[in-house]
Amino acid sequence: MSTPRPVFFVSDSTGITAETVGHSLLSHFEDEAFDETILSFIDTETKASNAIDKIARAGKKTGMRPIVIETIINPAVRTIIQQSEAHVVDIISTFLNPLEEFLGRPANIRIGRPEISADHGRYQRRIDAMQFALENDDGRRLEHYGQADIILVGISRSGKTPTSIFLALQANVYAANYPLTDDDFDRPVLPKALEPYREKLFGLTIEPKRLNQIRDGRKANSGYASLRKCEDEVRMAEALFRKYGIPFIDTTRLSIEEISTRIIVDKRLREKISTV
Amino acid sequence: MSTPRPVFFVSDSTGITAETVGHSLLSHFEDEAFDETILSFIDTETKASNAIDKIARAGKKTGMRPIVIETIINPAVRTIIQQSEAHVVDIISTFLNPLEEFLGRPANIRIGRPEISADHGRYQRRIDAMQFALENDDGRRLEHYGQADIILVGISRSGKTPTSIFLALQANVYAANYPLTDDDFDRPVLPKALEPYREKLFGLTIEPKRLNQIRDGRKANSGYASLRKCEDEVRMAEALFRKYGIPFIDTTRLSIEEISTRIIVDKRLREKISTV
Questions:
Q1: In angstroms, what separates the C-alpha of B190 from chain A's closest C-alpha?
Q2: Among A9, A40, A101, B40, which residue carries the largest CB count within 10 Å?
Q3: Which of B108-122, B130-144, B237-251 tops mean pLDDT?
Q4: Domains and CATH numbers, chain A
Q5: How far is Cα B216 from Cα B223, in angstroms, rounded to an integer?
């Protein structure tokens, strides 16, 4: 196994964007091995100098030129990072000059973080949506279904809770959820509590084998986790979705981000997020 | 007020990365008005053609050339999007050629999503971490503190719950939390339940005025929400943090992403995420 090449995601904020874009770029070189480090909050010239020293040391140690993927806003800080001997990928400023030309005006570089206070309202809605997801987890408060933008329906461990929370974080969506249990399968009819909210329902399903693994991780060798039980529940849940025309999605091979975005697009939960 | 210029974030996946990078770019032009649309799952040539039609219509309607910010992987799909009359910002492929030259090998373009099964372990840890945050919310299960990577300590509405959940999502961190209540302020000593875990504690605080607004949004005009009560609680919490040398952060002007990253960096919770 060859030495992995050092990669640094460098940001004057969290580094989350640099890491995400960086992973997307590096995933095109699957035969290369990379050793990744995120350097967050590199927001002064001193920190930038320390960062390039660190990057240089990694280069020396491995005998390989490092890669730096950065999203730094402050020009003085960015200039120092660009003096690094690494191969520097500059996610933001690469596109700023062409945008300045296109818009016919100079970019104004705001150093430091924007005043968040103006943004408190929007931010608070995100927190409120998250709180709503938590308080309405697992059908605990059926009386709040009226306030929900969407009600996720599915059997235990099909992904309802993480999806509700991510819907809140991503797009301020108020998501409640309703767990299908054995009681609901006695007769293949829509649970009474859901009747008034047919338009808000969205089903989650999952491959029985995968469900079996997940449940086994929580209650090993239980009846609840058995493949037989998983197969029965999945079949009954999907039959219910089909009978009542409830749209549903198989979560087995999707990330939370993808599940959440597909639901937003399918149910047109946010005007600005769509497909064609 | 001038007509906002249409902006499209276009992706063959969720569009979350295109939107994040796009916002970062557009925030440099604060005097311009933009009308933003996310086009997710543009993963076929047909969808790409429909997308550029939609973009062209927006251009015609407003009389302004739109901006397209895209992260499309599939070259055939990307080529179509690039034929749009818009100003196209191509986040991924702009950097691929230089990276190919640097690494001395061609990028292999994987069309379609990677097999997630190999990734199930890592993915499951993320879900497990999220589940841990939910089950350990608000000090419900003190007996699980041993398993926690970190225990967030703070008064009601200081941001403990959203931060715990985001720590899980971002970096698989197992975060529990402990709510400081009036009982804990009777005597200014560390709550007994926290004694064995001094090293894992991290405090959250918030400006009393902002706390007052948030609490008022939940229980208007209550004693709980009063500015006086907020001031008292914040003062006592911060005194406790200082007395016991518990590191803490003021969440008032920070996003969840920033709070989470600062905690990871300060407490060295993840080897790969640091500052210098």
A1: 28
A2: A9
A3: B237-251
A4: 5-103 (3.40.50), 118-266 (3.40.50)
A5: 10
Residues ≥6 apart with Cβ < 8 Å to A42: A10, A11, A12, A48, A51, A72, A77, A81, B275, B276
B82 strand-pairing partners: none
Q: Which residue carries 């520097």 as its tokens?
A: A88
Return phi, psi of residue A113, to 5°: -80, 145
Percent of chain A with pLDDT over 70: 95
Question: E strands, B159-266, where?
Answer: 175-180, 201-205, 248-250
Buried b (16+ CB within 10 A) or exposed e, B172-211: bbbbbbbbbeeebbeeeebbeebeebeebbbbbbbebebb
Q: Which two tokens stand for residue A171?
A: 């797009």
Q: What is the pLDDT of residues B173-190, one digit of tens each?
A: 999 999 999 888 888 899
- Taking the C-alpha atoms of residue B89 and residue A94, their distance in angstroms, rounded to an integer, is 10
Summarised one tens digit per residue, pLDDT across range A23-40 is: 989 989 988 999 999 999
**What ipTM was assigned to the predicted interfaces of this complex?**
0.90
User: What is the side-by-side order of every strand in the sheet holding A87-90?
Assistant: A87-90, A67-70, A5-10, A34-39, B273-274
Name, in order, each residue with C-beta under 8 angstroms of A179's C-beta and a sequence gap of 6 or more: A138, A139, A154, A155, A156, A160
Q: What percent of chain A has pLDDT over 90?
A: 70
Contact B273 A99 (CB under 8 A): no
Q: Best interface-test mutation with B: which of A2, A11, A28 has the largest number of B CBs within 10 A? A: A28
The confidence band for B118, taking pLDDT boundaries of 50, 70 and 90, is: very low
Q: Are B29 and A99 in contact (CB under 8 A)?
A: yes
| CB half-sphere exposure, B232, CA atoms < 13 A | 13
CA A50 remoteness from chain centre: 31
On the question of pLDDT at B214 being above 70, the answer is yes
The single-letter DSSP state of residue B39 is E
Pair type for strands B201-205 and B175-180: unpaired
- Model pTM score: 0.89
User: Are A9 and A51 spatial neighbours (Cβ–Cβ below 8 Å)?
Assistant: no
* Interface check A124 vs B, CB under 8 A: yes
